[in-house]
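[job 0412] stage=complex_fold ligand=BES status=START
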Amino acid sequence: MDIRVSRGDIAQQALDAIVVNLFEGVEHPGGATGAVDRALDGAISALISDGEVRGKKGENTLLHTLGRIPAKRVLVAGLGKQGEFSLDVVRQVTAEACRALRRAGVKRAATIAHGAGIGGLSALAVGQAIAEGALLGTYTFTRLKSRQEDHQELAELLVVERDADKAKELDEGVRIGRILAEATVLCRDLVNEPANRMTPTRLAEAAQEIARVHGLEVQVLERAQCEELGMGSFLSVARGSVEPPKLIVLSYRGDPDSPENNLGLVGKGITFDSGGISLKPAANMEEMKADMAGGASVLCAVKALAQLKPKINVTAIVPATENLPSGSATKPGDVVRAMSGKTIEVINTDAEGRLVLADAVCYARKLGLRRMVDVATLTGAISVALGDVRVGLFTNNQGLADELLKAGEAAGERYWQLPMDEEYRELITSQVADIKNTGGRNAGSITGAYFIKEFAEDTPWVHLDIAGVDMSEKDKGYLVKGASGIPVRTLVHLALRLAAR
Ligand code: BES
Ligand code: MN
Ligand code: ZN
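[job 0412] stage=complex_fold status=DONE, emitting structure tokens
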């Protein structure tokens, strides 16, 4: 979709449709909506007084203009209650409106910049939210369908603004929003891709492609190199698969003169999680193609950073492998040695995410990364706790966690911090090794996080458990059914914040 900003009057745009808006409870619309209403001889206010248009958030009403203005149709997009208005509402409403336009066969549309007027939001941020909402809300994954469905794409969105200064800011916002949205879209594509087409090798190729396009450094460590580094924990997961494991390292260097000004992003890259010998039940197992969502998100965050160019060095590390059962697979009770030297008793081969992350986190420390965030579809238990609404956040450093929480607010992605009291440590104490990889049913997400914390040691670290939010069950706001691309935009905002200091 082409998104452009243009100076002018929304009522004068000669396109398939124009989008205006309405806060809940407003009976006599003002501003651009009022002007369009007058041009339509009061058609919008008539719908309002009849109770058919109420301005509820996500409500979309399509009117035909019958030649009274140049555009063929007007979409009235509900903004919800004025007191609850925010940038995230702009993102959500734009997404819903663009899907409504597409359903109606609209190819070219113009919109006003929701919130940049009476809403009181900065035009830059509004431009960003509109681009994100439009591009993420109309996302589809159709490359594996032999017959492309014959619905039209919404090909062009024009953001129309009267004020020259605001138009300039909107334009810059759209540029940034597109970068963030395109990185999120690539993440969704990688996650939606089935596991036979998104093997560790293919994920490594995707990282190499990002590096080639954006001029980044990339390194892919093969099994032999990981063996030499002593990554017995990562490799224990790969034992059951015929697909070769890959440790993917993708680096953006925005501050080459200060190598210590850096951030590590470690992402779980299980391209299919069958559970291994501790085999999962068949129901919904196909969803485990998405068990590399954390890995995809860190690679795509680095892609966006390469375009936004903040003054910070960011390295993504993705331990990628399948987790499958076979005659050579790791068995419950096996003890493996991680790169840090710690021994791990594998109680359950389905708790494989923490095993691959242990070595990846250790490798991040070896590379000299001074703070890190890991992203993982780690536990089903996080869905029990937080559902599909918030990401679980764990940390050994409140300062870094606070930065991430603020980045999340800027992105409109939601987090909830869970505790890490040292009493949880004893749940993963092993009889035979230094640590075991499961802590029983209670506090499942916390013991999973605690396991990784033992390998982060004294490096400031945040763990994001995205197992509840990596896939959306339905189209809702800027999410569509399938991969969400969370937390790509938060990670980008985090790096921007850390660089600005
Ligand atoms: N990849 C799963 C977690 C998961 C479950 C992600 C559902 C998305 C949806 C992870 O590897 C796993 O299997 N975790 C186990 C841990 C347990 C064995 C301690 C779980 O959550 O059951
Ligand atoms: Mn598992
Ligand atoms: Zn897993």
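The chain has two domains: 2-164, 185-500.
[job 0412] exit 0
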